[in-house]
Amino acid sequence: MKNKILTFLYASRHKLQIILLFSVLAVLGHGYVLYRYFKDGILFTGPNDGMEQMVPIQMYLYEHWTHGSFFYATDLGLGGDMMMDFAYYFSTNLLFILNVMFIYIASFILHFNTDHMLFWVQNAIVISIVKSFLIMFSTYLLFKHYGLNRIASIVSAFLFAVSPIYFRFTVYWPFFSDVFILLPLLILSIERFLTRKKIGMFIIIVTLTFINNFYFAYYQLLIGLLYFMYRMIFKYKDDIINRFQQFKVFTIASILGLGSSLFIFFQAAIGFIGNNRATYRGEIPLLSEFGKHDNIFYDNYLVVVLFVAIQALLTFNLYKHYYYRLFSIFTIIFIIASFIPFVDSIFNGFSAPQKRWHYLLTFFSSGLIAFYVYYFKSIPVKQYIATCMPSFIIILMSYLITKDYVIWIWMVPVLCLIGLAVLTINSKGKVLIILYAISIMFLSFLVSKEHSKNQIYHEDHERRANKFYIQASTFDSALQRKHINDIKKNIDSGERISWRVLNQDNTPMYQQFQGMSLYSSIFDGALNDYLYNKAKVNLQDESLSKYSNMQGRSNLYSLWSTKYFMKKSYQQELPANFKLINDDGKYQIYKNEQMLPTVKVTDQYYDPNQIRNPLDLEHAMIKGVVTTQNHKDYAKMTHSKNLLKDTSITTHHSNYNKDILTVPSNGDGLTIKLPPHIAKQYQDLYLMMYVDRKPPQSNFTIQINQYANNRLFKDSKYRMNQDNLLYRVPVSNDGKINIGLTNGAYKLKLQGLYGENYQTLKQADKRKEHSFKEKNGIIDIKLNKHKAGTTVVNIPFRKGLTAYVDGKKTNVQRVNHVMVGIDVDKQSKHIKIKYKPPYFNVMLIISIISILLSILFTRFINKN
Questions:
Q1: Does the pLDDT of residue 745 top 80, yes or no?
Q2: Spatial contact of 812 and 797, defined as CB atoms under 8 Å apart
Q3: Residues of the chain with pLDDT > 70: what percent?
Q4: Inter-axis angle of helices 117-145 and 13-29, to 10 degrees?
Q5: Closest CA to 59 of 124, 108, 106
Q6: Chain-centre distance for alpha carbon 208
């Protein structure tokens, strides 16, 4: 047995050496990251998307998965399908799934504190090192397949895995950098078929790509097509498959790979398609602005192409080598494309331009440098010196123009001199070329270190992304958790808490309570439509990817069974009908005195076509249910009175003519005044108006009394295109509504002013007559005495929900635009609601069949 082990180790020594080498290089590549964490406590997680989105979502998924919940959950914001809604992030991410499995098993021994953010930001560093190792290994395999030696292949692996764009992706959006592993494997699988007639790996990689992340599967599709088209048009001498066979086999294999992934990919895709995200309407310029940080050869905020790549591109006599020419052409194409915003839009699905494809430029330029190292000794000395000059000029001019010193600038002459020594010193050994390769790798490390220092670990990152901040009251303190835990003892299943730390909309995820807010790029389109088009919730800070706290509108808090409202003592926003029950000087906790139950049974039906404004909608939802079921007998709708005609409207240091408002100074605008006898009838006013800022574009603020609403400029990628706005305005003592705006010109049209005295809410039945329990996505409702009608449950409707009334399968309806409705008889006692993603069984069967066909197809190709 011992001899067998020794024999195996000896036979595998080269592979083990590479594994050990890449393990060491992965750690060394993170040297600056580790240094800043252990010395200064600076996190390898961004202060915005990283800490506010990525880490809370990871915590949330871990908590639910380890308790047996995988799909529908009522605490995902207002509720949703965590698999579909988080497929863009981590719910289908293979590396994260493996990470969860390891943490869960290891926690029985090591007792990981997975309930706190600090564990997950520490975990991010470990996973990044593991990911770097996997990137190096997959890249190394590809370049060894190309025929490069170990030295050049190691160079390609290190340059790609320890590149500036890798660290930027991983700090802010860690799932982005998974594609660094899959890209080399995809190209390797294409090459294996063309040169060895092996198709199995291609099917596996296509399957894993579509499962891992539907968004980057699109990127992989584009680059896979481009690479395959090049290889099909320009054949390599070792290709053994003719063009027709290439096209036929790759088409079939791609379909089989897609089919094998459908049990996951289909859910992710329909979740994205159903997102109902606002369409980008901004203009896309022909070329980039060529600003200070657009120089991709010096100090670009996203990607830095090493100056060695310039030398490689100018070494024309090496273009005679097929793969050298291939990598040169792709590098040139992507360098040019990096200055064309429309290319950014193409890769982002013809939507807002996003520079997320630049890892392709890094990959091909890194590969080009590897080929350059491999053929380096064949370069004539004069040609080498000639190619050094443009590199010197580009780097020197970059420094002189920007006046920004980068620490690696001294490596330009040093590396050129080392290269010259390799070419001029007559040596048959590998020492000099190894020294040159190591110098290039060291240059790459310095470039990434400097990029991280300047573009990632900037002042805001150091201020907020640190061990102190993440455990303080600015993010997640022990006192906050104590208050939340005390509140949770006094709420029942289905009841909510309105609380978020500052603007952290995912606070409910990491403090583990059922809240009112969510920060995610993907959430259900029907919920989006309800919040922003029907209810016209107007976020204080405009964003496509968030919803939170219902704008202080008491009716909405009650309709969603929000029992407690918690805020910091200095924060002003407070809904009506909430009573202060606790004030410790730092935090105030209020209890809803007009809370509506999670479950009600009603026979009052309202026609959505008869509803004129959001206040009418709130009243209809409180009194009964809004439904499109035409067989219902609709109740008569009592419409809220538009009070605008009873007001006086005056300008304040501004000019208002034909709906055009010109504001010379910040804060100027209009004043609306209600007569005292009308104002005293109401607690809140709902002001509706259309606002469109005229050029020039800029962010602006609409100040309604004490409420500051921050709006984005017209071409912003994150603008909601929401110009018909609603403001909840507590009635002031003088009955005035002051509308102040940032200086500029606006098209502003006052649409309506509606008063709310909350009599409808106060008169509503608030008894909790029916019990509501949720466990692992299964909802159990017990009905007490009630009349025949519709059971309304204030959780979001999703296709895939199934109800069983007293054991009998019953249709689940979408009511109130977004909630769940189930018809019941007077005698109905029990409702069970289950959820399964739409067409899940069908897609699972298709995937199983596709996997079996893939095995048969692979064997057939191998035999023939």
A1: yes
A2: yes
A3: 98
A4: 130
A5: 124
A6: 20
Residue 827 in tokens? 């005698």
287: pLDDT confidence band, cut at 50, 70 and 90? confident
pTM above 0.85, yes or no: yes
Give the span between the Cα atoms of 352 and 232, in whole angstroms: 32
Rounded CA gap, 254 and 233, in Å?
19
How large is the angle between the packed helices 431-451 and 31-40, nearest 10 degrees? 40
CA distances from 509 to 22, 302, 505, 702 (A): 36, 30, 9, 30
Report how many helices (DSSP H) and strands (DSSP E) the chain contains, helices first.
30, 29
Distance of CA 8 to the CA centre of its chain: 45
| Sequence letter at residue 740 | G
Q: Which of 261, 322, 305, 299 is closest to 87 using CA atoms?
A: 261
Does 1 score more than 70 pLDDT? no
Output phi, psi for 166, to 5 deg. -60, -45
| 680 bridge partner residues | none
Q: From CA 344, how far away is CA 411, in angstroms rounded?
A: 32
Domains of the chain are 470-599 (no CATH), 601-639+768-835 (no CATH), 644-761 (2.60.120)
Among 861, 792, 474, residue whose Cα is nearest residue 621: 792
- 545, 105 Cβ separation under 8 angstroms: no
The 10 Å CB-count burial string (b at 16+, else e) for 395-409 is beebeeeeeeebebb
Q: Is residue 550 within 8 Å of 560, Cβ to Cβ?
A: yes
- Encoded amino acid at 570, one letter: Y
* Per-residue pLDDT, 739: 94
Return the ∠ at Cα 863 (arms to 860 and 864), rounded to 5°.
Answer: 85
Mean per-residue pLDDT over the chain, rounded: 91
Place of tokens 């579509």: 210
The token pair at 497 is 């808490």
- The two most distant CA atoms of the chain are separated, in Å, by 100
In whole angstroms, give the CA distance from residue 562 to residue 491: 10
* CA dihedral sign, ordered 247, 252, 257, 261: positive
pLDDT at residue 279 tops 80: no
What values do phi and psi take at 633, rounded to 5? Answer: -90, 110
**Residue 734 in contact with residue 687, Cβ under 8 Å?**
no
